[in-house]
């Protein structure tokens, strides 16, 4: 144990530097590992003559593998030096891009996607919260996490057009029928991910044992504030009690169906837009999506706090319906139409503004609807429902497109979004009604005890 004389207080500036490094992690290593993947779908489908449904299974397999690996990675962070874990993740994601670059068969692409997703969990899914939680154990943790995760949206603003420019250089023909002349883009991004990741790893770390990241006074004030908030917040039901609630299952079904519809907006949008616009225009739309997500992530917390779950999710649903309507409109236009570019930008803004519904939404809804008693368990249930829908959604979109057309596939996605949000909002209203009755009952019981 470090002696008092060896202890030193870390400056706020240094703590914010750690936040910046987390934000940079989200912007570039994570952005390369995850956010630009959809841009490769159409070029690879054309080059190797895959079906859209079969290739987009990379997102399903990757998501499932990362979900299984995540708890084990979390335990590993408790025992192994963070910098080592960070570099393992960077190495895995970089190797995955090399495998992408030498792959010609679907199973090889699936393996690369699984490795890439697991790798990103080391430094992003588990890594970023791990760093933030250590540097901000009390006040400011939520804001620091919010700023850090905004890095993904910021990265999209420049990574999306940069990726399309690189793909354009290594493609022949137009985006609709063109194919890759070289797999060099994968090696370029493997090097970029590895170099940036290693540079970040040189500086990013958790506090040393002799470093004080929060004063005793701040810790005391934070603890007092937390105890006060806990006394005032709705404690709610246990996980077992929630599982017996009919409206919980309707809520989960709604969120699962929403996942079916939203997967295509995140994973298949580029493959579709490539059939209607130039790579440069698709890159611009991806960049505007980053701007929309940046605004959506920041405004989402404000909407939830001010208007509650039902109204905020209704707003998100409307934004998604508008974004899919833009895609349907684009699907009816000829290749290269200027109105398609305008509608594509509108899609990206509408979709980005609603991104909070599945980013911060599950955490807020789990506590707001079911209480603080088992909020970790409830977050797992809520997140699982969406994850299942999302994992099925991308290949399902490809299957529908293969059997019919992009237009028909987008109509199906709109139906999923409408039905899903209707079920979710109705169940939210009913759960809040049950919650009010529950709170009133317990308040009356407390009042009776005091009188006795």
Residues in helices, as a percent range: over 70%
What strand line-up does the widest sheet have? 1-4
Show unreliable segments.
none
Percent range for β-strand residues: under 5%
CATH class of the largest domain: Mainly Alpha
**CATH fold type of the largest domain:** Growth Hormone, Chain: A
Tally of individual domains: 2
Radius of gyration: 23 Å
The count of helical stretches stands at 21
Architecture of the largest domain in CATH? Up-down Bundle
How widely separated are the two ends? 51 Å
Largest sheet properties = 2 strands, parallel
Q: Which whole number gives the mean pLDDT?
A: 87
Give the H and E element order.
EHHHHHHHHHHEEHEHHHHHHHHHH
Number of strands: 4
Class per helix and strand makeup: mainly alpha
The CATH superfamily of the largest domain is known as MFS general substrate transporter like domains
Outline: globular
């Amino acid at each position: 144990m470090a002696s008092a004389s060896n202890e030193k207080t870390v400056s706020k500036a240094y703590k914010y530097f750690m936040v910046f490094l987390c934000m940079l992690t989200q912007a570039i290593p994570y952005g390369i590992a995850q956010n630009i993947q959809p841009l490769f779908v159409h070029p690879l489908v054309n080059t190797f003559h895959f079906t859209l449904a079969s290739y987009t299974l990379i997102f399903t397999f990757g998501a499932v593998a990362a979900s299984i690996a995540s708890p084990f990675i979390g335990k590993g962070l408790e025992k192994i030096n963070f910098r080592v874990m960070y570099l393992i993740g960077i190495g895995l994601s970089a190797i995955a891009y090399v495998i992408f670059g030498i792959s010609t068969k679907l199973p090889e692409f699936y393996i690369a996607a699984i490795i890439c997703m697991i790798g990103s969990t080391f430094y992003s899914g588990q890594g970023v919260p791990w760093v933030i939680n250590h540097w901000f154990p009390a006040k400011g943790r939520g804001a620091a996490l919010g700023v850090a995760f905004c890095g993904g949206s910021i990265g999209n603003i420049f990574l999306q057009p940069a990726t399309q420019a690189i793909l354009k250089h290594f493609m022949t023909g137009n985006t609709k029928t063109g194919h890759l002349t070289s797999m060099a883009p994968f090696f370029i991004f493997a090097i970029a991910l590895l170099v940036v990741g290693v540079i970040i790893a040189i500086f990013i770390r958790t506090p040393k044992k002799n470093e004080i990241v929060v004063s005793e006074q701040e810790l005391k004030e934070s603890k007092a504030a937390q105890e006060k908030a806990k006394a005032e917040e709705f404690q709610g039901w246990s996980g077992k009690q929630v599982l017996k609630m009919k409206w919980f299952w309707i809520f989960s079904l709604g969120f699962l169906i929403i996942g079916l519809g939203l997967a295509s907006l995140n994973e298949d949008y580029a493959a579709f837009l490539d059939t209607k616009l130039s790579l440069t225009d698709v890159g611009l739309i991806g960049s505007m999506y980053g701007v929309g997500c940046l605004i959506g992530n920041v405004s989402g917390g404000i909407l939830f706090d001010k208007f509650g779950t039902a109204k905020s999710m209704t707003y998100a649903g409307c934004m998604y319906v508008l974004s899919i309507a833009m895609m349907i409109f684009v699907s009816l236009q000829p290749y290269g139409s200027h109105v398609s570019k305008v509608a594509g930008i509108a899609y990206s803004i509408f979709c980005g503004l609603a991104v909070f519904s599945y980013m911060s939404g599950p955490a807020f809804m789990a506590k707001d609807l079911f209480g603080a008693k088992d909020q970790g368990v409830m977050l797992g249930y809520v997140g699982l429902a969406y994850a299942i829908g999302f994992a099925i959604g991308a290949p399902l979109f490809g299957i529908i497109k293969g059997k019919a057309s992009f237009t028909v596939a987008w109509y199906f996605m709109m139906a999923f979004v409408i039905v899903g949000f209707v079920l979710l909002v109705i169940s939210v209203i009913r759960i809040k009604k049950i919650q009010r009755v529950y709170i009133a009952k317990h308040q009356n019981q407390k009042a009776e005890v005091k009188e006795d």
